[in-house]
Amino acid sequence: MSEHNPSRRVFLRTAALGLAAVPLARFATHSSRAQAQDLPKAEDGHALDYVNNAADSEHEKYQSGQKCESCAFWAGEEADGWGKCRHPQFSDVLVNAEGWCNTYAPKG
Ligand code: SF4
Q1: How far apart are CA 88 and CA 73, in angstroms?
Q2: What is the pTM of this model?
Q3: Residue whose CA is closest, atom 6 of ligand 1?
Q4: DSSP strand E in the chain: where?
Q5: I need a labelling partner for 101 at 20 to 30 A (CA). Which of 38, 42, 81, 94 fits?
Q6: Going by DSSP bridges, is the β-strand pair 74-79/95-96 parallel, antiparallel, or unpaired?
Q7: CB of 108 within 8 A of CB of 65?
Q8: CB–CB of 85/46 below 8 Å?
Q9: Which atom, in ligand 1's list, is nearest to the CA of 86?
Q10: Which of 74, 40, 78 is nearest to 54 (CA)?
Q11: For 72-81, how does the pLDDT look when each residue is reduced to its tens digit (9 = 90+)?
Q12: Which fold has domain 31-96?
């Protein structure tokens, strides 16, 4: 005797796909975080007159209060005040939330 219940079959198939997706999602999240943590921390002068402490900048464009954390290029903190910057000049390093470079752009 065979059981033909299409809605039960659809439910089981959907549940199986959902369960299979969970480990993949975890892997993707873990993988991108691991990549960010593998990046070196930018040093003063990395590019665009970058400094790790905005207050140290003597650049003519720098204005008090500006820092990576409030910049439109800031991609969010990864750990301990360090995070990614979306500007291509900083794609291979982490920048400091308190840092600054001459491409600073306030968040809109
Ligand atoms: S563009 Fe410059 S100021 Fe803005 S987050 Fe990147 S390094 Fe910091």
Answers
A1: 10
A2: 0.71
A3: 85
A4: 74-79, 82-85, 95-96
A5: 38
A6: unpaired
A7: no
A8: no
A9: 6
A10: 74
A11: 999 999 999 9
A12: High-Potential Iron-Sulfur Protein; Chain A (4.10.490)
The ligand 1 atom at the shortest distance from the C-alpha of residue 101 is 2
3-class DSSP assignment, residue 29: helix
SS3 annotation, the chain:
CCCCCHHHHHHHHHHHHHHHHHHHHHHHHHHHHHHHHHCCECCCCCCCCCECCHHHCCCCCCCCCCCHHHECCEEEEEECCEEEECCHHHCCCEEECCCECCCCCECC
pLDDT, position 97: 98
CA angle (80 as vertex; 74, 86 as ends), nearest 5: 20
Amino acid at 98: E
User: Could you tell me if the CB of 82 is within 6 A of ligand 1?
Assistant: no
The alpha carbon of 4 and the centre of ligand 1 are apart by a number of angstroms equal to 60
Give the integer Cα–Cα distance in Å for 98 and 60: 18
Query: Which residue type occupies 58?
Result: E
pLDDT less than 70: residues of the chain: 1-37
